[in-house]
Design goal:
Mean pLDDT: 83
Number of strands: 7
Strand content: 15-25%
Number of domains: 1
Helix content: 25-40%
C-alpha cells in the first residue's frame, strides 16, 4: 500500500506557504481549501484575526487532535520535548493572540487551550 503524501508545512508559520509535493510550486494559500468543522471550527473561531488566518490554512490541510488538558503532564512533556520540532502556544481567552510558551511555568491558568504544533504537520489541541 502506498504511503499517502502529505503537503509539507515546513516553515509555514514564517512563510505562509504550503509545499504540495515534489517539484510543485509553493501555494500562497489563495487556493480554495476545505473549511475546518465541528470542534476545530469552534477553536479557530476563538483565535484573533491574524492567528485565525494562519491556523485556518494549516488546520484545513492537517486537521487537529483534541485531548483533555492535564497541567502536570503538559509541563513534563514541555520539559522533555524537542524544542526544534515542537512548538507550544497558549490561548488565554477568546479573541486574544496565541502566546508562545517558552518555559514550563507558563503552562497555567487562565487558559482556554494549549496548541502543540509538530513540524511534521501535526497539531494537537489540549482543552481543560
Amino acid at each position: 500500500m502506498a504511503k499517502k503524501k502529505r503537503p509539507s508545512l515546513k516553515d509555514f508559520l514564517s512563510t505562509g506557504q504550503v509545499i504540495a509535493g515534489e517539484g510543485a510550486s509553493p501555494d500562497d494559500g489563495t487556493a480554495a481549501q476545505p473549511e475546518p468543522s465541528g470542534e476545530l471550527r469552534s477553536f479557530v473561531d476563538m483565535l484573533c484575526g491574524e492567528d485565525r488566518k494562519t491556523w485556518e490554512k494549516i488546520f484545513a490541510i492537517t486537521g487537529a487532535e483534541f485531548l483533555p488538558l492535564d497541567f502536570v503532564e503538559r509541563r513534563e512533556d514541555f520539559r522533555t520535548m524537542d524544542r526544534s520540532r515542537f512548538t507550544l502556544f497558549k490561548l488565554e481567552e477568546a479573541g486574544k493572540p496565541l502566546f508562545h510558551i517558552r518555559t514550563s511555568v507558563q503552562i497555567r491558568e487562565p487558559l482556554i487551550a494549549l496548541l502543540k504544533w509538530d513540524e511534521t504537520g501535526k497539531a494537537t489541541v489540549y482543552r481543560p
